[in-house]
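From the thread on structure requests for the teaching lab: each student submitted one protein with a one-line request. Submission from student K.M.:

"Model Phospho-2-dehydro-3-deoxyheptonate aldolase from Paracoccus kondratievae, tokens only."
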Amino acid sequence: MTIQTENLHIVTLRPLPEPAALAAALPRDEAISRTVADSRAAIRAILSGQDERLLVIAGPCSIHDTKAALDYAARLAELRRALGDRLEIVMRVYFEKPRTTVGWKGLINDPHLDGSDRIEDGLPMARRLLLDINRMGLPAATEFLDPILPQYLADLIAWGAIGARTTESQIHRQLASGLSCPVGFKNGTDGGVQVALDAIRSAARPHSFPAITAEGRAAIATTTGNDACHVVLRGGHDGPNYSTAHVAQVAEAARRAGIDPGIVIDASHANSSKDPARQIEVSADVAAQIRGGEHRIRGLMLESNLVAGRQDLVPGAPPVYGQSITDGCLGWEESRTLLIDLAEAAATRLRRAA
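Reply posted by the TA:
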């Protein structure tokens, strides 16, 4: 009798489509490829200080309703066209949600919001949404959490994030070193920034690590390193970290580490004390710093949706259209006003640089 030592806690193993097969079924066209490539180039220029415009990543905390997401995207795309001379607006399109304990893991993992975990349905749903958003001329940003999933979606992403819980992870630093888009590392949940600076230095170097190919086979990926990584300040247990003093401290720490931090401020999370309405206060402070001549702040992140606040899913009841089911968000009109104010601040910086 052979003693079983593997798969003791695995119930099923369901096959996923090959990344190449999904891309062939849902391909990007030349216009979509141009939107992605042009935005990546613009973001790199902004992060390096060559472009004095401001990067703004705005959108829902997480995507759970693709119809509402497209409604939001159409409005944001219009604003991108109107403010593009001052802002590089990218839509936040987050499909994966890291959980401290348990909870809904995002559209890819549970697209039907019922605990059925039909990842095989979530992947094409996510890719189709990214195609539709990019087709509007609106680039997309996302957080990379599972190291396998970028093979399915990364060709449609202009900017990526590594979250506060995973910035210290070697796996995610290696992943970032091979991604084709700029990547922001968030400071740790305790507010410490050194972990993000270390991550930037690590991701800029070549790495070799286990991965999968576009055909779904196990492989060893060898990377060049990614020189378009930077810091995202999101606050921590000790409070916010978006002030003038905090920016100066991060810039000095980065100087000692021999890197340009390319600072992006996350107006949500600990910087707003988890109160979505306080994102207005954070953004106003950032705008004032920019008007005052601060050039080390290169961007701002905003959790924004059609309807302000958040909701819990109620079994048997349809969710409120356009309202978050994870973290609370600003509503559309408040977000629009905020982005216009940021554009005016960026215009001041552009005039000073001219």
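TA comment: The radius of gyration is 20 Å. The beta strands are 54-59, 87-92, 140-143, 159-162, 183-186, 208-212, 218-222, 229-233, 263-266, 297-303.
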